[in-house]
Automatic annotation (TrEMBL):
<dbReference type="InterPro" id="IPR011008">
    <property type="entry name" value="Dimeric_a/b-barrel"/>
</dbReference>
<dbReference type="InterPro" id="IPR012577">
    <property type="entry name" value="NIPSNAP"/>
</dbReference>
<protein>
    <submittedName>
        <fullName>NIPS1 protein</fullName>
    </submittedName>
</protein>
<comment type="similarity">
    <text>Belongs to the NipSnap family.</text>
</comment>
<dbReference type="GO" id="GO:0019233">
    <property type="term" value="P:sensory perception of pain"/>
</dbReference>
<dbReference type="GO" id="GO:0000423">
    <property type="term" value="P:mitophagy"/>
</dbReference>
<dbReference type="Pfam" id="PF07978">
    <property type="entry name" value="NIPSNAP"/>
</dbReference>
<dbReference type="GO" id="GO:0005739">
    <property type="term" value="C:mitochondrion"/>
</dbReference>
<feature type="domain" description="NIPSNAP">
    <location>
        <begin position="40"/>
        <end position="137"/>
    </location>
</feature>
<dbReference type="InterPro" id="IPR051557">
    <property type="entry name" value="NipSnap_domain"/>
</dbReference>
Length: 139
């Protein structure tokens, strides 16, 4: 009964909701608990239809450029829901370390080539900064 009342109350606050079933890229790290404090960046890419294999092939080579500081948390793609959607989850100590880490990737030979080949595959992209709750295993 309490749950039904909660659902009814929640429905008055909820404007919209979307669900996705995601699979992880085989070449990416599996998300594991982390010591904090960290902030997380969730980058979402909506790709052009028919480009997922090309995206995956490029990132399978490019992920090595972003493993140095263990910032790569997980890489996922949509299987159900809106298709051709990719999510990359990155961990950083703070916004300053995010900037330094991203700039360091540009200084590595080969990173620019990855960007060159993947940017044309993107329709839209979004970046969100998230701070974990105390109960999250990702701190």
């Amino acid at each position: 009964q309490e749950y039904l009342e909660f659902r009814k109350e929640r429905s008055r606050m909820l404007l919209s909701r979307r669900n996705q079933l995601l699979l992880e890229f085989s070449f990416w790290n599996e998300p594991r608990p982390r010591q904090g404090p960290n902030i997380y960046e969730l980058r979402t890419y909506k790709l052009k239809p028919g480009t997922m294999i090309e995206w995956g092939n490029n990132w399978a080579r490019a992920i090595k450029y972003r493993q140095e500081n263990q910032e790569a948390v997980g890489g996922f793609f949509s299987q159900i829901g809106e298709l051709y959607v990719v999510h990359h989850l990155w961990a950083y100590r703070d916004l300053q370390s995010r900037e330094e880490t991203r700039n360091a990737a540009w200084r590595k030979r080969g990173w620019d080539e990855n960007v060159y080949y993947t940017v044309p595959l993107i329709r839209t992209m979004e970046s969100r900064i998230m701070i974990p709750l105390r109960i999250s295993p990702l701190q």
